[in-house]
Design goal:
mainly beta, about 450 residues, five-stranded antiparallel beta sheet, globular, four-stranded antiparallel beta sheet, Immunoglobulin-like, 2 domains, about 5% helix
C-alpha cells in the first residue's frame, strides 16, 4: 500500500511539473469599438498580415448615426493596426455583403475567406455565402452553399486546416431548420462541408457521428496523427450550461474518440496549434451571461493550463448590471496570443445587444526547469539575416535538440534534427526557431530569424 501511495504522489508531482511548463501573462487590453465610425462591433476577429507587419480587425458593425432598430448590425467592417495595436487610419467594409451579423472568417497566407448566412428559399432551406477577399479586402469571388432542410446557417463553423476549408452547420432531423437557443427536444449533429481555396466543393457533405452543436465550433487537423479534431459542445438545457469536447476523426471524418475539455464551456471558435500545444479560447457560464477562458492542451488534449480572459461578475438579482463576454478568436504571433472577442451589457436577466469589440494580448511563457542563465543563453543562430542556410549553435552538454521554424502567426514551416537548416524555399520575412529538447519535447528557447 505504501508503494502505491508513494507512486501516486510521485505521479501527482510529475503532473504538477508538467502543468507548469507553460503559462500566460496579460500584456495589454484594447477596446476597439465604439470608434469614430462604428457604435457597435460584434464577432470581433483579429488577424496578422506578416508581409505588411500589420494587424487587421474584422467585425459586424453598426455605423454611427444609424436609425435601425437597437442591436441591428449594418456592415462587416475592417480596421488596420500596427504592431503596437495603434490604429493606422486605414479602414473599410467588406464589399459584396448586403447585411451583417453572424460570420466566420479565416486568413490563409494573406487572403481572407468569409462565411455568413445567406437568406432562405420559400421552402425554408437556408444557405451560406462563402466569399474570398484579397489583402486589401477587395472581393475576389463568392459562392452560395445550399444547406439541407435540417441545417441552420447561424454561428458558423469554419477553419482552414489540412489544405481545405472545413465548414460546419448545426443539423437536426426534427427541425426545419433548427433555431437558437436550441429546443430541449433537439438531437443535434454537425453537417460538414469541405471546400478548396477556389471555393469549389471537395467532397459531398457528411453528417458526423457523435451528437454536438456546431454553433461556435471549430476544426483543426493533426498532421502527425493524421486526425481531425472537432471542438464543439453538448447541452441539455438550451446552452445553460454546456460541456466542451474534442471529437477525434480520421481523414475521412469517421469517428474515433471523444475527450472532454471542460464541464462548463462552449463556443470554442478560437483555436491555435503551435506544434506543441493547442490554445483554445471559449465561453464559460450561462450562454447569455458569462466569461471567457483560455485553455492550453497538449497533443493528447490533456489540459496543462486554464487562465482567465474576462472576469465579469455573475448576477442573480433582477436589475443588477454586469457584462457578457462572448465569441473569442485567437491569432498567435510568435510567443504572443491576440484574443479578440465582443462584450455586451447584461442587466439581469436581459442582454442589451450593445456588443463592443475588444482584444487582449497574452505573452506565452515556457518554463522547463532549465537554467536560462547558463544553457539557454548559449544558443546562437547565424547568419542572421540568412538567405539559403541557417546554423544553430547548441551548448556542448550532451543533450540532443530538434529545431522547428514557424512563421509569425505560429504555423510550422520546417522541422529538422540537424542544426544546419536549408531555408532557401521560404519566402522572405520574419520567422521563429523553436529549440526543442529531443528527450522532453519541451521548447527550451525561441530565436527570431530573418529570411532575406
Amino acid at each position: 500500500m505504501k508503494k502505491i501511495i508513494l507512486l501516486s504522489f510521485a505521479l501527482l508531482c510529475l503532473i504538477q511539473i508538467y502543468k507548469a511548463q507553460v503559462s500566460v501573462s496579460l500584456l495589454n487590453s484594447y477596446s476597439l469599438t465604439p470608434n469614430e465610425t462604428d457604435t457597435l462591433g460584434a464577432f470581433a476577429r483579429i488577424y496578422y498580415n506578416q508581409y505588411r507587419s500589420k494587424f487587421y480587425l474584422v467585425y459586424s458593425a453598426r455605423q454611427a448615426g444609424s436609425i435601425a432598430p437597437a442591436g441591428q448590425l449594418s456592415n462587416f467592417a475592417w480596421r488596420e493596426y500596427d504592431n503596437n495595436m495603434l490604429f493606422t487610419g486605414n479602414k473599410g467594409s467588406l464589399n459584396g455583403q448586403t447585411n451583417a451579423g453572424d460570420f466566420a472568417m479565416v486568413m490563409v497566407d494573406s487572403t481572407y475567406y468569409h462565411l455568413t448566412a445567406f437568406g432562405s428559399t420559400t421552402t425554408g432551406i437556408l444557405k451560406y455565402k462563402l466569399s474570398k477577399y484579397d489583402d486589401d479586402f477587395v472581393s475576389q469571388a463568392n459562392t452560395i452553399i445550399t444547406l439541407t432542410a435540417n441545417d441552420n446557417n447561424i454561428d458558423q463553423l469554419m477553419n482552414y486546416t489540412n489544405n481545405r476549408l472545413i465548414i460546419g452547420a448545426m443539423h437536426d432531423t426534427s427541425a426545419f431548420p433548427p433555431v437558437t437557443p436550441p429546443l430541449l427536444t433537439y438531437d443535434p449533429y454537425i453537417n460538414l462541408y469541405q471546400y478548396d481555396l477556389n471555393l469549389t466543393s471537395i467532397t459531398p457533405n457528411k453528417i458526423l457521428s457523435q451528437k454536438a452543436y456546431s454553433w461556435g465550433g471549430s476544426c483543426i487537423y493533426d498532421t502527425a496523427g493524421s486526425s481531425y479534431y472537432i471542438l464543439a459542445d453538448k447541452t441539455t438545457n438550451q446552452f445553460n450550461i454546456a460541456s466542451l469536447y474534442s471529437f477525434k476523426y480520421d481523414t475521412n471524418f469517421n469517428y474515433i474518440s471523444t475527450t472532454q475539455l471542460s464541464s462548463n464551456g462552449q463556443w470554442p471558435q478560437g483555436v491555435v496549434w503551435d506544434g506543441q500545444y493547442y490554445y483554445v479560447a471559449y465561453h464559460t457560464g450561462a450562454h447569455n451571461h458569462g466569461n471567457l477562458l483560455l485553455g492550453v492542451f497538449n497533443s493528447n488534449w490533456a489540459n496543462v493550463l486554464t487562465d482567465t480572459i474576462t472576469s465579469y461578475p455573475v448576477l442573480t438579482t433582477t436589475g443588477q448590471v454586469s457584462y457578457n463576454a462572448n465569441r473569442p478568436f485567437i491569432t498567435k504571433v510568435g510567443t504572443k496570443l491576440y484574443i479578440s472577442y465582443d462584450v455586451e451589457k447584461y442587466v439581469f436577466p436581459v442582454n442589451k445587444k450593445d456588443w463592443q469589440a475588444h482584444v487582449k494580448v497574452f505573452q506565452i511563457n515556457f518554463t522547463t526547469g532549465i537554467d536560462k542563465s547558463t544553457e539557454a543563453s548559449q544558443f546562437s543562430v547565424y547568419p542572421n539575416p540568412a538567405d539559403n542556410v541557417v546554423k544553430i549553435l547548441s551548448p556542448n552538454n550532451g543533450k540532443k535538440y530538434e529545431f522547428e521554424i514557424t512563421d509569425i502567426p505560429g504555423k510550422t514551416v520546417l522541422r529538422s534534427r540537424l542544426n544546419i537548416i536549408d531555408i532557401s524555399d521560404l519566402i522572405s520575412g520574419n520567422y521563429f526557431i523553436n529549440i526543442i529538447d529531443s528527450r522532453s519535447e519541451n521548447i527550451v528557447e525561441i530565436k527570431k530569424i530573418i529570411k532575406e
